[in-house]
Amino acid sequence: MSREVVRERPRPPPPAVAAEELQWIFSEEELLLAPSIVDGMSPQEERTLRKKGVNFIFQVGIMLKLPQTTLSTAAVFFNRYLMRNSLKVSPGYKPLHHYQIAATTLFLATKVEENCRKMKELVVACVRVALKDPNKLVDEQTKDFWKWRDTIQFNEDVILESLCFDLSVEPPFKIMYEMLKYYGLEHNKRLRNASWAFLSDSCLTPLCLLFTSRTIAAASLYAGARLADVELPNEDGKPWWEIQYVKLRDVRKACNMMVDLYNPIQGTSENAAIYVNLKSPDVIDMSFQTPQSLENGAPAPPRSEENVVPSTEIMDVDSKPVPEAATKPNEILNGERNSVAPDDGSEEGELDG
């Protein structure tokens, strides 16, 4: 005789965890006051550099076979760091390159999520992604290995200080899967893949600075349900969003921001690059004082343009393919379909210090 499975109602997030997460939640007006924008960088360029940094994290993570939760945590650290530090060069201030920040936040995330990788493996992956050569031979005998290794180790304390040593992040992937299990939809492949794709691509946006992890998870589930033609049921006269302790206004707002990720900018052709005119500096300046240089008793010498060797192309990690489940985002909310404009912008730089 089979027993009826009794579902446990979702519990609200612990007050201490919710209060801690709210410390890193900003309004859209506050995002326009990020240090880089205040220093003169355009909001569009600042958003582009955020996207490029997260793409770098994803490419390195894929090469290291890291789980999505670790990559999501690294993306959160990356975005939080940029709310307290600028990417704009100013007199007396030399910012870190967004690839340096991305590599260091990924190193921190592997520790926080307990998915550690050897330093050598991480450095090799960073060099191969940065140099756009997945088969490049990298070992302790190459200069790029030591420069990236010193970069990560030297900047780890810098990132930690900027994050106020607040490393508690609740990945939305786990929350969304618990929501699927609550409604008995975890075996619905179409819904599960669509929701996962929306949630994964949301890491390319600053959603983690605007909404809580639970809201982002609910928005991804809602978008996936609309795509898969699945209706989330109400219970005891309460709508599904109240059962999951989220606000419908925030869920819809988050869904609209996800859809904007796939929409081309108005005034551009379907095949034109969205950020074609926005490029990073031609040189990645790695001439900071590293532990290795300090051991020699003298700071690293400043770079001279005369000594710069011909630049080496950095891997274009911004041409991220759009998942199949997310190719029709406008059908979800608007009933229409727009084509996705590929991001063909590339960077050039050089790693010689």
Automatic annotation (TrEMBL):
Keyword Lipoprotein: no
Start-end of Acidic residues biased regions: 344-353
Top-level lineage group: Eukaryota
Single GO biological process annotation from the record: regulation of transcription by RNA polymerase II
InterPro entries: Cyclin-like_dom, Cyclin-like_sf, Cyclin/Ssn8, Cyclin_N
Ranges for region Disordered: 291-353
Entries under Pfam families matching the protein: Cyclin_N
Entry-linked SUPFAM superfamilies: Cyclin-like
MF annotations from Gene Ontology: cyclin-dependent protein serine/threonine kinase regulator activity
Record carries keyword Protease: no
Keyword terms: Cyclin
Domain Cyclin-like: 55-161, 174-260
Family according to the record: Belongs to the cyclin family. Cyclin C subfamily.
Protein name: RNA polymerase II holoenzyme cyclin-like subunit
Annotated source species: Sporormia fimetaria CBS 119925
